[in-house]
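@channel anyone free to eyeball this complex?
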Amino acid sequence: MNIQQLREQFPQLSRTVYGKPLVYLDNAATSLRPQPVIDKWTEISSERTANLHRAVHHIAAEATEEYENTRLKVAGFINAPDPSEIVFTSGATHSLNLLAFSLGEAFVRQGDEIIVSEAEHHSNLVPWQMLCARKGAVLKRLTVDDSGRLQEELLPSLITPRTRIVAVAHISNVLGLVNPIEEIAAVCRKNGVLLVVDGAQGIVHQQVDVQALGCDFYAFSGHKMYASPGTGVLWGRKELLEQMPPMFGGGEMIETVSWESSTYAPLPRKFEAGTQNISGTPTLSPAIDLMRQMPPQEDVKEYVYRTLTEEPGVRLFGTTFDLSLKAPVFSFAVEGAHHEDLALILDKMGIALRSGQMCAEPLMDRLGVTGLLRASFAPYNTLSEAEFFVTSLRKAISMLK
Amino acid sequence: MTLQEKKEQIIEEFSMFDEWLDKYEYLIELGKALAPYPEEKKTDDRLIKGCQSRVWLDAQMSGGTLVFSADSDAVITRGIISLLVGVYSGRTPQEILSDDFSFLETIGLKENLSPTRANGLLSMIETIRKKASENV
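replying in thread with the prediction:
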């Protein structure tokens, strides 16, 4: 599939804003939806709506099959050893909150320690803060250097016999840097510490193999990988998921219920209480099919990286000598120009990008900025869009000077 | 110049611009020309919440009217707050409270800079109104 054929799959790419063609560079916030995903949602909503697993009628069986086939597909996509390790959620935030609760109930006691990286999205920080407050546990910080690189070499010295969990992103949503999960996992394994990986960006930009990564949990959202919003996945090692109590009680997650107590359904239903996102979750399937055919976009990434690193007055964060360890997520500051001003002007030129703290306030504090501008590219973004972005950025900067 | 005359003057100035980029150029000019705001007044209690950039607004009663001064670290936002200060500074609290701020819609600011865009125009208006009601 070439880029033109890919673009044709995304209806929103043909719309205009302020009479100008939309240049969508806010993909790290949410990706656009391709036609097969829209079609799948419509097809299920118009032909296959029924609740899952319990009913004996025909449509319920079809809906259940669709849902469970999606589980098989997701398991294959991330090379999970067992499909029952795939828990469907409403997104990475839900996955991480579920983990922080259920993992915390099972394994975290007063005085235990949880190590979280300084570069995390709030979704992989706040749930751990809440767990620490609930259990009287201690939150410890794995720092980044001045450019934003995670200082994973400091991890062994942070781990003590009380450390239970390490939580890091596969790829930072601000810096776009790929963290060395395999190495971090080796350190964790050696010390008997559980490793939770926020894969919200990682699933989009890396071929994820959870067994090769060596982590214990991997969480991601559907809406950043072209599937329906309100969908997400939590993958975890079976022996750990089995030891964890559910966070939500209700329909579908039980085995037996008496007035006094309940026993819980086997994995993964133990963690899937209530009516599932029956129209949305199956859209992960066509999204994965499309992702497998997407053309590489190295030229766009190299062009933007090179231009922003060489541009006078522009300070790009998340620099690296090895571009294979960088996703096309570019956060930068411009000397003498506020990120909000730049974003407002670029918006009028038809360019959608993000400005502000990007749900990572501690990282902004560490980098010494009040906010940044972020351009994040998807495989459907062309080189000419990237060039237009650079020209427009220069024009916006000169307006503000 | 009365409040009404001042608003009409701004509406006329904005009507000269067809392109939004020209309006931004004008707001940037206004932002750059805003009177200096004392560093010691950049305090948390003067910070307007709900803006992506930081905006400080100071209000003092003087001879029955409210005198506003303001600043922001973003220049377009400084241009917007400069417009607001230019219109509402030196008015009585009663005058401010009886105004509907609709001139911002007439010049296209409200629709283009709605609160969903996190630039906090509504927060600025609310703060000005709050200062007025505190001083009635």
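from a first look: Chain A has a mean pLDDT of 96.
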